[in-house]
Amino acid sequence: MPRTPHDSVLFWDRYKPDRDGPSPPPDVAAFEWTQYEGHGPGAELLGRPRTALELGAAECREASWLARRGVRVTALDLSPVQVERARRWWKDVPGLTIEEGEACSFLRADDQTYDAVYSIWGAVWFTDPEELFPLVAERLSPGGVFAFSHGETPRHLNGRRPMYGKGPEGREMTVDRWCHHPGTWADLAREHGFRDVRARCLPAPTDQALGTIIVEARLPA
């Protein structure tokens, strides 16, 4: 089947590629929600989960960090290239399972429940929340935490928007991204049964331009 300019798998296959052969695993010293090292909250937003699911895990940095601290983590990513690399990097980390698949399809087929479901600049940003949020709620334990982060949304953007990138031979590719402001994310979470919702935009440190939207929500206990 030929690839198209809107091929999400190919788009994410080319995310942070290994350019000169297999690269070594990164040194993961902290659980980060933002793109700025040491800036903002950490894993405390998830409470003290025994089990966790990461949606759109890519390099599985945070998933490996949690698993090393005793959490049983399932890390999901759409890209077979990302999954292969993450499995190679973290094959010796106990309690970490890395799966390949699309978020909504995986959640529909999954029969496990999790104390925490989270996404860091990952699948929540690139999946229709009207479809995703009720599926997340079905897979969370009572009182479970749903938390995610993504880049600050410009004031003039709202809703489903294309994000552009370069594919093979420099051709332009797109994936859909849901651009919501914190208040909209909070309303969507409440509409789908989540409570204790907190949504905010954490400003960037120093003179960096782009802040980070962070959303936390819980299922009723």
Automatic annotation (TrEMBL):
Any one GO BP annotation for this protein: methylation
Gene3D superfamilies assigned to the protein according to its UniProt record, in alphabetical order: Vaccinia Virus protein VP39
SUPFAM superfamilies associated with the record: S-adenosyl-L-methionine-dependent methyltransferases
Lineage top rank: taxon: Bacteria
GO molecular function: methyltransferase activity
Keywords: Methyltransferase, Transferase
All residue ranges annotated as the Methyltransferase type domain in the record: 53-148
Listed name of the protein: Class I SAM-dependent methyltransferase
Species whose genome carries this gene: Streptomyces pimonensis
